[in-house]
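Morning - magnesium ion inputs below, output right after.
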Amino acid sequence: MKITAARLIVCSPDRNFVTLKIETDEGIYGLGDATLNGRELAVAAYLEEHVLPCLIGRDPFQTEEIWQYFYRGAYWRRGPVTMTAIAAVDVALWDIKGKALNTPVYNLLGGKSRDGVMVYTHANGADISEALDSVQKYMAEGYIAVRAQAGVPGVASSYGVPKPGKAYEPAERGLPSETLWSTEKYLNFVPKLFEKLRVELGDDVHLLHDLHHRLTPIEAARVGKSLEPYHLFWMEDPCPAELQESFELIRRHTTTPIATGEVFNSIWDSHDLIRKQLIDYIRMTIVHGGGITHAKKTAEFASLYHVRTGFHGATDLSPVTMAAALHLGLSVHNFGIQEHMHHSPLTDEVFPHNYTFQAGYMHPGDAPGLGVDIDELLAAKYPYQRAYLPVARKLDGTITDW
Ligand code: CS2
Ligand code: MG
């Protein structure tokens, strides 16, 4: 089998997506997601100008060789743009392999290690009582794990909380919006949120919380310690992770489990975090971390150190990535949990898919390949629109981590 064509579909059905379609001489095609939120066209240009011309004529079954060709062969390594482009190629090739062998991708990754993939979704509210309602709504839908975020009193537009009447979506069209942040107000508020949730919801539901890289290690340690009575499933991204050793300080003070890695793009970003057992869940996503080939290696490395997977699954990752994550999650032994933030109905229509949700668990389906397609005619009706993630400032105007 040979690759005969590779092209990009850039569309914006409620939000931007970059999708790679690789075609073969046997009429089989594969899809890969190349979406990097707020920097979409940088990946599109990298693929278009530097990667796709080198793919034509290659054998799509050679996923390892092709991965190394674009990683080592480029000389310049890592970084979100490069690794997202490599991921798009890699995932599309696994899709082709599955279709050609008439089997779902999970069978090529070791087969099923479990019956379904436990997922968590996003509950949020402007205040504690709205957040509680939102968690209860998802529990009534069958979720057994829910991330809870609530507006912090005195902080306009808190992370993870939607504008009134809208679904939460981090990127906004136009130029970047600005949000405000106060660590002091947050530190005083967050134990009250989880105290209320545990009192009302009991001990069984898994509760998760995202700190979104905003704290220093000692501040994050305080959050972890103050939340111990409410036994969170995890606290996510307690502080920026470029300095991997800073997690040692957090670990010294708290037993609240830690998840990090949604902005990582290679195993080297988490190498020390994993081998020193400074985290419990690795979140590096398939789309920004070099695809299925590299995510599987990262998961297997993590399994040696009792670290489990908790792959990123926000709406800026297309249904193609969601499917890839579910195939990998079904197969790796050290799966932990998968994020499931719902795409809009329009996004779901543009990307018809076989994955399903039932009673807290998702399944990728048994269709050959990934089990996701793209409706190109519908996609063409929603062209790319410039959009950015917000920029955050402290109350005194200093730029801080969003
Ligand atoms: C978040 C994301 O899902 C999460 O845990 O941190 O919503 C993140 O902010 C976006 O993916 C950024 O593009
Ligand atoms: Mg997050």
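Note: The mean pLDDT is 97.

O.
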